[in-house]
């Protein structure tokens, strides 16, 4: 099986420094299942390509196997696609051969290791259970331009159709360490199989390699489940840990505070948002609270820590998110009295649900922007029309403030799954319309450090039911 890495960064020959492999030497590395070779088919100042060739010995692989035996037929251990189709075997070779590059270490060119450079990754044969569109789903959100060309079962007989393999070519401008770690994680995901048993240490490997890019990936549940061979307890643990990473990263890219600013750590925007929500719930004297669109349970954990919230309900449309929330909150280990205060339910923010009626408050924290605009009237009817709590709290990003994030490209949204992001005027107009239509006067509040021109990064609305209206 083969992987090539090409750059046109000038001088392109610096790729050898980044990979810690000299372009003038062919190198061989012994692995459990065979041997890996690194060669450079082309090296110029304008273009450089490194190739990782993995020779797999199927018999040795079977003799040393610690895990699944392969395909489901009698000779499946010996007759399979392992020698030529990229899989977890190639991922292991990546880790062994390019481990320093994956960690972003380069003593000779430390500044280059931290620089996004033009890259092209080519995998001639990749098992892709999900087809070419699946490759786009996984690599597209990471900033790659994806070409996944289906490979025919036999070019001589086109009527036989396409195989489950694709020729994958990725082009983009990324740090080399990010590119390699993404490939390391995603190769087993495409094959949806590993050549060894998945144990608890695989969770640590995933968190180390996935880091922040996986935490923010819209397909992180699918990626995590496949990477961990659908082992539920490992998957739940990994998603819980990724959720903590996502919570730190999503709001941690605060604009620079400038020279002379205090060095002490400021609360992240996520922490400030939760603090603001809790303050408004206390002010409303809410005891029975619904977190609608609770995700993996960040707000639920804060609510559970305060005894004045006597009944807490987390609702989310994604069963996987609820399982992660349950793991993060460690519900099975809570004392009986604490466990009785909280429950998790699967449900939608756009469908009337009798279970949501009768509560003091409903919180929609960073939820509305994940809906298609056409679904917003259904959300309003569900929350303000049917459930009708005394208080509704809504938070959403302020799109104007995005210009202050140095790491956010112009015009980009804060999260790949956001369908829209409102300006302050747009959010105020929506709140006016919803409040007037359902009898909920409201207040608008900023959350986070306010910019004199662009406002605060998060905007919060507190709706209070008009008691004179049924």
Automatic annotation (TrEMBL):
Swiss-Prot/TrEMBL cofactor(s): Mg(2+)
Reactions it catalyzes: small RNA 3'-end nucleotide + S-adenosyl-L-methionine = small RNA 3'-end 2'-O-methylnucleotide + S-adenosyl-L-homocysteine + H(+)
Keywords: Magnesium, Metal-binding, Methyltransferase, RNA-binding, RNA-mediated gene silencing, S-adenosyl-L-methionine, Transferase
Gene3D superfamilies given in the database record: Hen1, N-terminal domain, Vaccinia Virus protein VP39
Signal peptide interval: none
InterPro entries, per database record: 3'-RNA_MeTfrase_Hen1_bac, Hen1, Hen1_N, Hen1_N_sf, SAM-dependent_MTases_sf
Highest taxon listed in the record's lineage: Bacteria
Domain Hen1 N-terminal: 1-242
Family: Belongs to the methyltransferase superfamily. HEN1 family.
Protein's name in the database: Small RNA 2'-O-methyltransferase
């Amino acid at each position: 099986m083969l992987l090539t890495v090409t750059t046109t960064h000038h001088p392109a020959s610096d790729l050898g420094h980044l990979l810690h492999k000299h372009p003038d030497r062919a190198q061989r590395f012994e692995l459990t299942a065979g041997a890996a070779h690194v060669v450079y088919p082309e090296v110029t100042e304008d273009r450089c390509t490194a190739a990782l060739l993995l020779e797999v010995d199927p018999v040795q692989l079977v003799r040393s196997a610690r895990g699944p035996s392969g395909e489901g037929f009698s000779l499946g251990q010996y007759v399979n696609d392992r020698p030529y189709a990229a899989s977890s075997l190639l991922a292991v070779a990546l880790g062994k051969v390019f481990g320093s590059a994956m960690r972003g270490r380069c003593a000779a060119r430390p500044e280059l290791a931290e620089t996004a450079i033009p890259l092209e990754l080519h995998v001639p044969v990749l098992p892709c259970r999900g087809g070419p569109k699946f490759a786009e789903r996984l690599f597209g959100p990471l900033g790659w331009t994806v070409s996944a060309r289906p490979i025919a079962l036999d070019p001589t007989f086109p009527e036989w159709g396409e195989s489950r393999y694709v020729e994958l070519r990725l082009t983009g401008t990324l740090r080399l360490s990010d590119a390699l770690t993404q490939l390391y994680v995603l190769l087993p995901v495409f094959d949806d199989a590993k050549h060894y048993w998945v144990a608890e240490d695989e969770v640590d490997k995933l968190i180390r390699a996935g880091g922040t890019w996986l935490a923010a990936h819209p397909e992180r549940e699918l990626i995590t489940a496949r990477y961990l061979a659908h082992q539920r307890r490992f998957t739940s643990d990994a998603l819980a840990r990724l959720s903590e990473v996502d919570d730190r990263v999503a709001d941690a890219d605060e604009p620079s505070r400038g020279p002379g600013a205090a060095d002490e750590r400021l609360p992240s925007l996520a922490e400030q948002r939760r603090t603001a929500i809790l303050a408004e719930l206390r002010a409303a004297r809410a005891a029975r609270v619904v977190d609608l669109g609770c995700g993996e349970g960040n707000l639920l954990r804060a609510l559970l820590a305060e005894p004045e919230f006597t009944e807490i309900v987390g609702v989310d449309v994604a069963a996987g998110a609820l399982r992660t929330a349950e793991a993060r909150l460690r519900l099975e280990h809570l004392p009986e009295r604490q466990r009785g205060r909280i429950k998790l339910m699967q449900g939608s923010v756009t469908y009337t649900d009798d279970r949501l009626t009768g509560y003091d408050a409903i919180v929609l924290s960073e939820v509305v922007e994940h809906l298609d605009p056409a679904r917003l009237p259904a959300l309003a009817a569900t929350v303000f029309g049917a459930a009708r709590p005394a208080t509704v709290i809504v938070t959403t990003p302020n799109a104007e403030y995005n210009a202050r994030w140095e790491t956010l490209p112009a015009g980009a949204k804060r999260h790949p799954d956001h369908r829209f992001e409102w300006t302050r005027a747009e959010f105020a107009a929506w709140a006016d319309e919803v409040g007037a239509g359902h009898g909920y006067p409201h207040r608008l509040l900023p959350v986070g450090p306010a910019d004199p021109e662009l406002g605060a990064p998060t905007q919060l609305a507190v709706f209070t039911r008009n008691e004179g209206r049924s």
